[in-house]
Amino acid sequence: MLNLYNTLSKQKEVFKSINPGKVGMYSCGPTVYGYIHIGNIRAYLLSDTIRRYLEYIGYEVRLIKNITDVGHLTDDDVAQGDSGEDKMVKAALKEKKSPEEIARFYEEYFKQVEKEMNILPAHFFPRATAHVPQMIKIVEGLIEKGFAYEKNGNVFFDVTKFEDYGKLSGNTLENLKVGARLEEHPDKKNPWDFALWLKAPENHLMKWPSPWSVGYPGWHIECSAMSTEYLGNTIDIHTGGEDNIFPHHEAEIAQTQCYTGKQYVRFWLHGRHLMVDGKKMSKSKGNLYTLEDIKEKGFSAMDLRLLMLSSHYRSQTDFSWEALEQAHKNLQRINDFVLTLEALALRDISVTNTFDVTAYQEKFEAAMNDDLNTPLALAAVYELITEVNKKNDDETLSSTDAKKILTLWKKINAVFGLVLSGQAEIPEEIKRLVAEREQARLGKDFKKSDALRILIEEHGFILEDTKDGQKIRLAS
Ligand SMILES: [Zn+2]
After folding, report:
1. d(Cα 238, Cα 231) in Å, to the nearest integer?
2. pTM score of the predicted model
């Protein structure tokens, strides 16, 4: 049975979907006015892992991930203050591009990164700009029901009208009153009310007509509009980074539940921040890495994927180059394990003992069922690798068992989503011998070339001469 930690109830709960066999999932997607960084990647990897594991246990998942292409400020306080500042618009003006051009560029970049990370694409990526009418409809409904009010073309949600406000984040009105760091807006009744619609200043590039003013939607309303549009009033799972809990998700709950009269989300899952060398990532600290930075240092997207899977999503992972190096080694170890199994499966080895494959599957599932404990699930795999290597050395692993283990690995890896190179990592010494042999071949010194081939094979590698040059692989 799958247990998931629900931020709303603050405990692990047995997961059950609303409709048997089907899961509706919504993940807050990127704001496309800049490059996504590895911290964002971690949040998308969380939703990918849940989705993959739900599919593993037999659910049919529908995942929606929005594209925030309306230039909103990420700092809600300032957005509520309607300062007229807007990152997307600013960037557009600086680069002399239209906000739409900029948004499409970064959306493509985001999708490319997800592809390289082997994050399965959402079933749909709705864009906020294409859903303004739906947002207006919800705002109208909220005004009608008395949960929102309009003043001077701006519309705000009155949080005092929603009893459960603060339930998700713990930021109840009492707490907010004490520690409020909220900017005043002259049209707000209470400082903690949040914007649903804002009147656009003259020079604002992105604006739409509405019953209240020519303006633009508040940051939170888009997710309510798009999740109800594509997944219905109540969804099974909503994910995001921990920074989304307040005010974004708190506001989503308030406005959606007041509009539909139904529970909005059954399970709220939040990934913790990714730290870099023990510090929070930020542009000013110069430790905000993108996938390009990772690749520039010679690592792969899969090294990063394995690094992230190596810690639990609710623990604060620390990114460091040393940790990435370790992940790279572990990935190679998994890769070699698969190569060994493939080689064994092709041979005809029969031994009397059998291998308990099911025990490892059970360990993997027990770990994943416990709130997606990927590090523990990986530990089961590493244990399996050690066992296989030992048996391979003793020549006590049958071809039949090798095939069974291979089948299990493929099943497990449908959840981990690791794309393996399928190539053995060649030690430096062997690379040197291969290069030396290439020289001998070019110099037509075939005696030396043959001697080097034998030497390489003695080290457990097989050399093949192809039209593209020498190819080397691990001998089975
Ligand atoms: Zn959202």
Report:
1. 11
2. 0.88
In the numeric block, the tokens 């992940």 are attached to 327
**291-416 CATH:** 1.10.730
C-alpha 2 to ligand 1 mean position (Å): 25
Please give the residue that has the higher pLDDT: either 361 or 70. 361
Task: Give me the CATH code for the 13-271 domain, please.
Answer: 3.40.50.620
Distance 230 CA to ligand 1 centre (A): 14
Tokens of 338: 């698969």
Question: How far apart are the CA of 238 and the centre of ligand 1, in A?
Answer: 9
Token pair 């308990």: residue? 356
How much distance in Å is there from the Cα of 264 to the middle of ligand 1?
13
Look at the alpha carbons of 292, 293, 298, 301 in this order and tell me if their dihedral is positive or negative. Answer: negative
Q: What are φ and ψ of residue 69, in 5° steps?
A: -110, 10
Contacts of 191 (CB under 8 A, 6+ apart): 180, 182, 183, 184
* pLDDT digits 0-9 by tens, 201-221: 877 778 999 999 999 999 899
Please report how the helices 38-56 and 301-309 are oriented relative to each other, as an axis angle in degrees rounded to 10: 70
Q: What is the CA(384)–ligand 1 centre distance, in A?
A: 39
Pure H helices in 154-249: 173-179, 221-231
Beta bridge partners of 471: 464
* Domain map (residue ranges) of the chain: 13-271, 291-416, 428-474
Exposure b/e, 266-288, CB count within 10 A at least 16 = b = bbbbbbbebbbeeeebeeeeebb
